[in-house]
Amino acid sequence: MANSADQGELWCVSTFQRVAWVLVLLGWLALTLAVTIGGNKTPGAGDSPTVLLWILTVVVALGAWRYGFVPYVEATDDELIVRNAFSTKSFSWSDIKTITPRSMGLVIITAEDRLIPGHAWAVQKSRAARWTNTRTRADAVTRTLMEHVRAAASQ
């Protein structure tokens, strides 16, 4: 969903993906609580597996937050800003050649024709949708972003 902001349009991770990450976290938390409450029955292991499970619970929680709630794509008047889980990149509209929706996110190919294109994880198109040629939110976002690219090219 695009949010109108003073500086541009903003697309975040879909609600489905956020719910999926929360469910993964809750499932992991339930497993950790069950092992903690039920006790560790591994002979000779002591409390090691329980402590490890709690450490991994923190890792899963951080992953759920970084992958489910941090990524976004923002279209401003001057540039495209892509915030992924661990990085932020900005692309000038005039530098962008094309944007394509893929299962790992929007693929942003610049005029420099780099070997490694930019990816926007926040907006993804499933492989099933690509195979069946189904229109998705990723197609709508791509269309909107490509309008910005075309407008910058015509100036």
Descriptive account of the structure:
By secondary structure, the protein is α+β, with helices and mostly antiparallel strands. It folds into 2 domains: 3-68; 92-154, no CATH class. 44% of the residues lie in helices and 25% in strands. Strands 1-2-3-4-5 form a 5-stranded antiparallel sheet, with helices on one face. Strands 6-7-8 form a 3-stranded antiparallel sheet, with helices on one face. Helix 1 (15-38) packs antiparallel against helix 2 (48-68). The radius of gyration is 20 Å and the shape is elongated. 19% of the residues are buried.
Question: What is the element layout, followed by pairings?
Answer:
Blueprint: E1 2-4, E2 8-12, H1 15-38, H2 48-68, E3 72-76, E4 79-83, E5 88-92, E6 96-102, E7 105-110, E8 118-120, H3 127-131, H4 137-154
Antiparallel strand pairs: 1-2, 2-3, 3-4, 4-5, 6-7, 7-8
Helix pairs in contact: 1-2
In a nutshell, what does this entry contain?
The chain is of the alpha+beta class and 155 residues long. 44% of the residues lie in helices and 25% in strands.
State the helix count: 4
Strand content range: 25-35%
Number of individual domains: 2
Low-pLDDT windows of residues: none
Name the structural class: alpha+beta
Features:
elongated; alpha+beta; single chain; 44% helix; three-stranded antiparallel sheet; 4 helices; 155 residues; five-stranded antiparallel sheet
